Amino acid sequence: MSIETDFLVIGSGIAGLSYALRAADHGRVLIVTKGDITECNTNYAQGGIACVMYEPDTFERHIHDTLVCGSGICDRRAVEQVVTGAPAAIKELVRMGTKFDRSADGTYELAREGGHTENRILHAKDLTGAELERVLVRQVKRHPNIEVREHHFAVDILTQHHLGQMVRKNTSGITCYGAYVLDLKTQQVATVLSRVTVLATGGVGNIDHTTTNPSVATGDGIAMVHRAKGVIDNMAFIQFHPTSLYHPGERPAFLISEAMRGFGAKLRLPSGEEFMSKYHPMGSLAPRDVVARGIDNEMKTRGLDYVYLDVTHLDPRSVIDHFPNIYKKCLSEDIDITKDVIPVAPAAHYCCGGVKVDLNGQTSIRHLYALGETSSTGLHGANRLASNSLIEAAVYASKAAAHSIQKIKEIELRTDIPAWDYEGTSHPEEMILITQNYREMQQIMSAYVGIVRSNLRLDRANRRLEIIFRETEELYLRSTLSRNLCELRNMIAVGYLIIKDARRRTESIGLHYSLDYPASPGNEF
Ligand code: FAD
Ligand code: SIN
């Protein structure tokens, strides 16, 4: 079966939905998403969305904080574009109906998170992402030019390779013509032909055995571009959130928002001692890489499974009012956060690298854009500043929409792509082979490619992953196409890209901390 559309958008988080809404007045938009429409990282976001709102805050300060947090390797043009584009993006979200919290005087209540030198985080209690997703989904469902297909899994993007041509990394003019999309209910693969294709497939958190990300975050877009010989960038920089609720085996790990530390929460050892001030002058509110390493160090040297986050010294009513979702979740685990300290440990959270894009969100492959967490815009450098990702997705969605709307008139739909070849794939493989390899992949990445790395650990991870890669490719060739198998394949590709980027680096910088290399200035711990 083949389907034709002007804009194919893969993913239904803030990036995909924001783009779709802007493109829909200029052509037909098809959104495919592999789960329910709201199953995405966006829906889980807690702390908020960063934007300079009032004096004394300035664009210069937000730019400065982002650059410092990124350890000096951000692309300054991307940083300036996001920071200065943020107010317009927020205005648009508010126009659509987003309700950010306000103070009694009607001004927006702004929170602070790690690495920010000002209060500049707009939020909707501790459920900001769900509020954004609610509004965007409502707008998308109302738009007559947008069709949404849930439970549709994009397997691969279409390029000249599917026309029988040899495509290599250095092939010039690699072009995207759409994607093969598996309908998870009928198990049929559609050839979706589009003039413009947008990858908004989110993060990679499931690479690790503990993550704050929902199960959809398996780096599919990054793996697809890697297979299509597009450019991927900065994959070494996987951000661990310092404070997920300690609950072994819970997936996703429940996040205890950094906004709590912005509100006055302190990280403590079991003895009650506050420990972050010995690692950084900003203490518990230091940039995230420093806090995660500080906690990791305390846990390893003291043999702890977790440390504590403490809000018991703060006004209980105010704590419950600002963090009702966290309060409720902890209470369900018999932790009354107004009286008890919260056990927390780091968890894989955010992918700072991804598909390399320019200032318009264009990838190295023609007619293919990448937005949101799946992209590498240069905004985050070696470490993302808290609450900078939702705003990055919104700003780049607007830039990419404006750019692609201009271009689309010149783009012909390519209709000679062959249908998916089902040959040789009639046997559904035993699930155990897939789940066991998935678990092994997570173990390898967690043990050797986590918060602290070394050359030996990376080499070992590489060798182990290669074995799983070969086994999985064999499995892929002889099995019926399934979401689980495709995700495993994609996660292995992502693991390989992380290790490859980490191994080529000869300094400890931001989120890439190696025992073998000295830290760059400002990253001494
Ligand atoms: P997502 O929202 O993850 O959407 C990706 C979409 O792609 C999903 O719909 C998924 O189903 C779909 N998809 C993936 N692969 C395929 C495929 N092969 N075929 C079809 N569909 C596919 N950032 C902030 O700025 N502020 C915060 O407060 C904040 N809090 C966070 C809290 C948590 C617990 C988490 C996990 C993240 C948080 N982040 C926060 C990060 C932020 O939420 C994400 O980076 C951002 O939402 C990513 O948006 P996105 O649209 O790029 O991807
Ligand atoms: C949080 O609320 O701590 C998450 C913020 C982020 O990831 O940007």
Notable features of this structure?
single chain; alpha/beta; 7-stranded mixed β-sheet; 14 helices; binds succinic acid
In words, what does this structure look like?
This protein is of the alpha/beta class and 525 residues long. It is 36% helix and 15% strand. It is built from 14 helices and 16 strands. Strands 1, 2, 5, 6, 7, 8 and 15 form a seven-stranded mixed beta sheet that branches. Helix 1 links the parallel strand 1 (2-10) and strand 2 (29-32). Helix 1 (14-23) runs parallel beside helix 5. The protein is globular. The model has no long low-confidence stretch (mean pLDDT 96).
In oligomeric terms, what are we looking at? single chain
The helix-strand sequence is EHEHEHHEHEEEEHEEHEHEHHEEEEHHHH
Low-confidence spans: none
Structural class: alpha/beta
Rg (C-alpha, Å): 22 Å
Shape call: globular
The averaged pLDDT comes out at 96
What portion of residues belong to β-strands? 15-25%
Short description:
The protein has 525 residues and is of the alpha/beta class. The chain has helices spanning 14-23, 41-44, 59-69, 76-96, 128-142, 220-227, 259-262, 288-302, 316-322, 324-332, 389-407, 431-448, 455-478, 483-504; strands at residues 2-10, 29-32, 49-50, 121-122, 146-149, 152-158, 178-183, 189-199, 232-233, 238-245, 266-268, 307-310, 342-351, 354-356, 368-370, 375-376. It is 36% helix and 15% strand.
